[in-house]
Each structure stands twice: as structure tokens, then as C-alpha cells.
């Protein structure tokens, strides 16, 4: 499926498993963060929408305005951070590399890369709006 040209209804019917959709004030900014820090690919980028790809996983970004008729925006806090309480793992991305990129770009590293007892080396980086992304790889 060509993510640059697929119609919305074809894309929607193709989705399976668990889907993540993040509402954001700045689609282009969040897409840039995800591409720069984690190496996710960006598709269909506009002011209102983007598709992010990591392996076989798709992450959708929608502007607040694109969701104006949906009840979800009423739950968004007036004061940041937006993403409190949600941690999104990005498996297969080296946390040391991602954290170095995040620090170089001035992003907030909430947890440095650490070997965890559950067999992963992971860290946590906050997006500009407070979404927590955790790159993780298996400990050799």
C-alpha cells in the first residue's frame, strides 16, 4: 500500500491490531520530532494529518482542528503536558542513539538509557507536547 496516495477509507479498512492516534497542536512539529529522534518515516504530512511508520506499525497524527467534531478534544488539558500517563514503546530503536539525538536537539530526556530487569535497554524522551516515547532494544 502506498501511504502517500492511499485513500482514507482504504487505509481505515486496512488497519488491524492496536492503533495509536495522537492529537497535536502542531502535526508538522510532532512528525519532525518523531523522524529526527527515532527515525520514523513520515507520510502524508500536512498541517492537519500525518502517518508515521515504524516497521509494520502505523501511528497517526491529527491536528486538534481536524478532530473538532469528535468528543476527545474536550478531554485535552488546557495546560501541558498532554500525554501524561501514556508511555509508547518504540521497539527496535536503540535508546542510546535516540537519547543522544534528543539531547542534541534540546528535547527533554525523562529517563536515560538503562538496562531493565525485564530484559530491555530503554529510555524515555518527551515530545514537545509531553507525549512519552520509549525506544527499547533487547539486552544482549
Q: Share of helix among residues?
A: 10-25%
Q: Under CATH, the topology of the largest domain is which?
A: Signal recognition particle alu RNA binding heterodimer, srp9/1
Radius of gyration: 15 Å
Number of helices: 3
As for the number of domains, it is 2
Taking the alpha carbons of the first and last residues, their distance comes to 34 Å
**What structural class do you assign from the helix and strand content?**
alpha/beta
Name the shape in a single word.
globular
CATH class of the largest domain: Alpha Beta
Description of the molecule:
There is one protein chain. This protein has 140 residues and is an alpha/beta fold. The protein has two domains: 1-74, 2-Layer Sandwich (Signal recognition particle alu RNA binding heterodimer, srp9/1), CATH 3.30.720; 83-140, Signal recognition particle alu RNA binding heterodimer, srp9/1 (2-Layer Sandwich), CATH 3.30.720. It is built from three helices and eight strands, in the order αβαββββαβββ. The protein has helices spanning 8-14, 27-38, 95-104, and strands spanning 20-24, 41-43, 49-54, 57-63, 87-91, 108-115, 120-126, 132-138. It has a four-stranded mixed beta sheet with strand order 1-4-3-2, with helices on one face. β2 and β3 form a beta hairpin. The longest helix is centred in the N-terminal third of the chain and has 12 residues, at 27-38. The chain is globular, with a radius of gyration of 15 Å.
Amino acid at each position: 500500500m502506498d501511504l502517500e496516495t492511499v485513500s482514507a477509507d482504504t487505509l481505515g479498512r486496512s488497519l488491524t491490531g492496536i492503533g495509536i492516534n495522537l492529537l497535536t497542536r502542531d502535526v508538522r512539529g510532532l512528525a519532525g520530532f518523531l523522524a529526527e529522534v527515532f527515525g520514523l518515516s513520515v507520510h502524508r504530512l500536512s498541517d492537519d494529518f500525518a502517518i508515521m511508520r515504524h516497521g509494520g506499525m502505523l501511528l497517526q497524527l491529527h491536528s486538534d482542528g481536524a478532530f473538532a467534531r469528535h468528543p476527545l478534544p474536550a478531554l485535552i488539558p488546557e495546560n501541558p503536558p498532554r500525554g501524561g500517563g501514556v508511555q509508547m514503546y518504540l521497539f527496535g530503536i536503540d535508546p542510546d542513539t535516540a537519547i543522544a539525538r534528543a539531547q542534541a536537539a534540546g528535547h527533554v530526556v525523562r529517563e536515560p538509557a538503562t538496562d531493565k530487569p525485564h530484559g530491555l535497554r530503554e529510555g524515555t524522551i518527551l515530545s514537545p507536547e509531553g507525549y512519552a516515547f520509549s525506544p527499547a532494544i533487547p539486552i544482549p
